[in-house]
Design goal:
heterodimer; A: mainly alpha; MetI-like fold; 2 domains; 16 helices; 74% helix; flat; B: mainly alpha; 14 helices; 69% helix
């Protein structure tokens, strides 16, 4: 899912270099011309895809970047205002509290998604009965098919005053019903729990696929050497999972600052201060209040932050060293 | 898959018991909330709003479903979602396989440049460019239109590379001999490549359908007209904004949960039909460059 950019880039540069440095009319250029003609149909087929990406991917990116240096206006000409939007946003208390919320929710989610799904995959793998294993896997995977609005609905029901969670708490601990959804102390934990509930089965499936790909002979050899099952998990399964772990960590680190849907669904006056994330700030400022300059500046900072986090994580886990 | 064939060693008894307890806990934590929602949605209005845990509806009734279907005009967002998701997914699969086919032509000049061109679009999550997306779509007259929802996300780098990986498994000699026989590229693409990668097409199709059905970000970015909202956005509105719905009566828990089930169920059904493609899709999708 995550591809190494650098090798592709290097090749591209080499190709361009070859094309531009060859003399006009040289055999190299003629050969290239013939090749291009021969493959014309492919370029024609590629055209709709290229046009799509330019209009709906590259251009919006540039457009947002440009807008971040312009006055807050959607229509008419927008005078450039230099770094004013960035200065404004960095002093805006809403933006700053969104930074804190995003980091807290994002980092907890990243860490817990990783360990919960890894642990679940390892535990599930120890089951011998195949049907039981698959049934449990399916039950754990199903929430990943749900929209965040659906999960919001489930949360509203089970964390209600008379809901599942309060019923259990009162039976087991005899506690008074807690109104979780309006209690600031539970605002962030509830959001983080939503994410784990939805995504654990999915990431566990990624690990399970990797575990299934381990050569059976490795276990065979370990058994001959008298290694216990626990030893086999430590010395065979975990090391074999390292590439998958790295891929998942990179995927998760891209997502640290991009929590949005679940926040949009769950935000209310009681928890807003604690769970309003950066993307909710961007959405509300730019799309709802038309402060496009401020919002784009915020979004650009989030992009820079994501690049920084992903870069640091890649370096930390040695992702680019193969 | 191979380790399943050989007899597995077992953990010490204490750990095995602990293992099973943890799995039971996981099943309860994942399963009970879903069961709870389903049971409440099938309960009567009175029962769903009175204290007490509902895990089995006795007797089951579709009261909540009929109420929410009629009172909140749910058919409209339901069919909006079906329309946008299905049309968008068909186009997505076509475009992604087309691009995948081009990227697996290993003698094509500038192929690497084209690959990089698509790879770069995967580096920035689209949510981060929502202001730019809104501005561009507004200029194109695509805000508040179904076309806007369909066109945005019509192809993605992820699907392109997944298809390319599928296509790379098809021997090049097959296409070569078809070319010698005088088949055009469109023919080779449609009658050899597409036909031999049905499971790949199903994988990206299913993933895209799920993504589109559940999408909230793009809908709320592009659509402010409530009539064109999709199910998840309307569901959030029903669940949390009902105080501001003027004129509608109080929505009881059974009706709310009926809306939740109606949003979620189509995808669960789809999942059971296409389950086998998921792990294969994950395996091929995760092959690193």
């Amino acid at each position: 899912m995550v591809y190494c950019l650098c090798t592709e880039g290097a090749h591209w540069r080499r190709t361009l270099h070859r094309v531009y440095t060859s003399e006009p009319g040289s055999t190299m250029n003629k050969a290239l011309g013939r090749q291009l003609k021969k493959y014309r149909i492919f370029y024609l087929m590629f055209l709709p895809v290229a046009v799509y990406f330019i209009i709906f991917s590259y251009y919006p990116f540039l457009r947002g970047l440009i807008m971040s240096f312009q006055e807050n206006r959607l229509l008419g000409n927008r005078p450039f205002v230099g770094l004013a939007n960035y200065k404004f946003v960095l002093k805006d208390s809403n933006f700053l509290s969104a930074v804190t919320n995003s980091l807290i929710i994002g980092i907890w989610d990243m860490v817990l998604y990783f360990f919960f799904s890894l642990g679940f995959a390892l535990i599930l793998n120890e089951l011998v009965q195949r049907t039981v294993k698959q049934t449990i896997q399916t039950i754990a995977y199903i929430p990943y098919l749900f929209s965040w609005a659906v999960i919001g609905g489930i949360w509203v029901l089970i964390f209600d005053l008379q809901g599942l969670v309060n019923q259990f708490l009162s039976i087991i601990f005899g506690t008074e019903p807690i109104f979780f959804l309006a209690n600031p102390a539970f605002a962030r934990p509830l959001i983080i729990a939503m994410g784990i509930w939805r995504s654990m089965g999915y990431f566990a499936l990624l690990f399970t696929v990797a575990i299934m790909n381990i050569e059976g002979q490795l276990y065979e050899a370990a058994r001959i050497d008298g290694a216990s099952r626990l030893m086999q998990i430590r010395k065979i399964i975990l090391p074999s999972l390292i590439p998958t772990m790295k891929t998942i960590i990179v995927l998760l680190s891209i997502g640290v600052l991009t929590h949005f849907d679940e926040i949009y669904v769950m935000v209310n006056p009681a928890n807003r201060r604690l769970i309003s994330t950066l993307l909710l700030f961007v959405y509300e400022t730019g799309i709802l209040n038309f402060q496009t300059g401020t919002a784009s500046a915020g979004a650009t900072l989030v992009m820079a932050g994501t690049l920084l986090i992903t870069g640091l994580m890649r370096k930390f886990i040695g992702y680019d060293k193969e | 898959m191979k380790n399943r064939l050989s007899k597995k060693d077992n953990l010490p008894l204490a750990m095995r018991v602990l293992n099973i307890l943890v799995l039971v806990l996981v099943v309860v934590l994942m399963g009970l909330p879903m069961l709870n929602v389903l049971a409440v949605s099938l309960s009567t209005q009175a029962k769903s709003d009175s204290p007490g845990l509902v895990l089995l509806p006795t007797p089951p009734t579709f009261e909540g479903y009929t109420f929410i279907w009629k009172h909140t005009n749910l058919p409209r967002p339901f069919f909006n979602t079906v329309y946008v998701s299905v049309v968008g997914t068909v186009l997505h699969v076509l475009m992604a396989s087309l691009a995948g086919y081009i990227l697996c032509q290993n003698k094509l000049p500038f192929r690497k440049a084209m690959t990089t061109f698509i790879l770069l679009t995967m580096t920035v999550p689209y949510e981060l460019t929502m202001i730019g997306i809104y501005a561009v779509n507004r200029d194109l007259g695509l805000t508040n239109t179904y076309a806007g929802l369909i066109l945005n996300g019509m192809v993605s780098g992820f699907s392109v590379f997944l298809m390319r990986n599928y296509f790379q498994a098809i021997p090049l000699s097959l296409a070569e001999s078809a070319r010698i026989d005088g088949s055009g590229e469109w023919r080779i693409f449609s009658s050899i490549y597409l036909r031999l990668s049905v499971s790949g097409l199903m994988t990206i199709g299913t993933l895209e359908l799920i993504r589109r059905w559940n999408n909230i970000t793009m809908t709320i970015t592009l659509i402010s007209d409530m009539k064109k909202w999709t199910l998840p956005v309307v569901l959030r509105y029903i669940l949390f904004d009902q105080t501001s719905t003027s004129g509608t009566s109080y929505i009881f828990a059974n009706a709310k949960m009926a809306a939740v089930v109606m949003t979620a169920l189509p995808l669960v059904v789809l999942y059971f039909f296409t389950q086998s493609f998921f792990s294969s899709g994950i395996m091929i999708g995760s092959v690193k460059e």
